[in-house]
Amino acid sequence: MPVTAPHVSRLARPVGVVCVEGVRVFDPRPVMAVLVSALALMLLPAATHAQDLEPRAYSNAPIGFNFLVLGYAHSQGGLSFDPSLPIEDARLRTDSGVFAYARTLDLWGKSGRFDVVVPYSQLSGSATVAGQPAERHVTGFSEPRLRLSVNLYGAPALSLQEFAHYQRDLVIGTSIQVSAPSGQYDPSRAINLGSNRWTVKPEIGISKTFGALTLDFTTSATFYGVNDDYYGGKTLEQEPLYAAQTHVSYDFGGGIWAALGATYYRGGRVTTNGNTSLVELGNTRAGAVLALPVDRNHSIKFSLSGSVHTRTGSEFAIFGLAWQYRWGAGY
Q1: Which has the least CB within 10 A, 21, 38, 267, 280?
Q2: How distant, in Å, are the alpha carbons of 49, 83, 172, 302 from that of 259?
Q3: CB neighbour list of residue 126: distance below 8 Å, 6 or more residues apart
C-alpha cells in the first residue's frame, strides 16, 4: 500500500522533518546541505580565510553526526596566498583540493561542531610583489585549519528523535578557528602556499529564519602571529583584519537551497622590520551558493564568488565544488 503524506505547510514544518502518515520523521537532507555550507571555507586558500563567504554557518543538527567532505576550487586573478601585502599586476591561477572532517557535538547542552580542513593546492603565475616581479609554480599543502563552533541561543543539543520537533527561528552562535604554520613555505620566494605563522579567527553570528527564507549576519577578526622568516630575511607582523558578511538564503524544499551573500573586510596593515605600512586592506566580495542533496547520505554544493569593489588588495574569482558524505547519530 503506497504511503501518502498529509499536506503540511513548509512555513510550519521544522527544518529536516517530513510527515509520513501524520508522524514527523527526521529527513537529513536539509541538514546535510547546511553543513556543506558551514565548511565552505575549505575551498579557499589558507591565507584568504579571513575573506570567506559562508552562509548558514550557525545552524543546528542532531548530535553525533559525522561529515566527510572532499572539495575542489579554482581561482584566478590577483589572488595571493599571503594577502598581508598589496599585490600588483597579479596573474595567478590556483587549483585546490581539500579533505575535511566535521562532527556535531553537545557542548554543555548547546549544539556545537568541530571541523578540521586540510587543503592541497597548485599555484602558477606571476605578480609584482613589493615592487619586484615574481613568477611562481608550486604544489603542496596549505596550512590546516581547525575550528570549534557553538550555538549559544536557539539551537540546543538534540538527539535524532528530539530534532524531529525542532523549529528553527533565531540562532546566535560563535566560533574560534586556528591555523598552524605547517604548509609549504620557502622564505627565498615571495609567493607561497603557506604563510609561516599562526592565525586565530574568533567570530560571532546571528541567523533568523522567516519560513523558507533565512537571513545571516556574522562578524569576525583575524589575528596574525609573527613571521620571523619572511621573504628577504625580514620579520613580518600584521594588524588584525576585521570582516563582516551577510547572506540571504531560500529553501526550495527537499533539502535544496540557494544563497546570495556579500562580505566586507578592512584592516591588516603590516609592519616589516619595524617599518609600518600606511596601506590597509578594504575590499568587498559577493558570491552565490547552490546546495543539492543526492540522497540521505550524500550531498553536493556549488559556490562562486568574486570581487565587487577593491580599495586596496587583490581582485580574484573563485569557483568551488564540494561533495559530502554523512554518517552517525543512529540514522
Answers
A1: 21
A2: 19, 26, 19, 11
A3: 89, 90, 91, 92, 133, 134, 135, 136
DSSP letter at 8 equals -
- Cell, residue 93: 591561477
Q: How distant, in Å, are the alpha carbons of 34, 289, 323 from that of 59?
A: 7, 16, 19
Place of cell 527564507: 213
CA 281 to each of CA 67, 169, 267: distance values in angstroms, whole numbers, following the listed order: 34, 35, 5
Q: Count the residues in the chain.
A: 331
d(CA 67, CA 163): 18
Give domain limits for the chain.
Answer: 17-328
CA atoms within 13 A on the CB side of 132: 10
Q: What is the identity of the amino acid at 314? A: S
Contacts of 77 by beta carbon, 8 Å cutoff, 6+ apart: 90, 92, 307, 314, 315, 316, 317
17-328 fold:
Porin (2.40.160)
Stated pTM of the model:
0.84
Low-confidence ranges of the chain (pLDDT < 70): 1-52, 78-88, 129-130, 309-315, 330-331
Within a 13 Å sphere around the CA of 98, how many CA atoms are in the beta-carbon half? Answer: 34
> What is the longest distance spanned by two Cα atoms in the chain?
77
**Per residue in 270-287, pLDDT tens?**
888 888 877 777 788 899
Dist. CA 331–CA 62, nearest whole Å: 10
Q: Which three cell numbers stand for residue 5?
A: 503524506
Chain centroid offset of residue 179 CA: 13
Containing H/E element for 247? strand 241-253
292 with 299: CB under 8 angstroms?
A: yes
Note the pLDDT tens digit of each residue in 221-243: 999 999 999 888 889 999 999 99
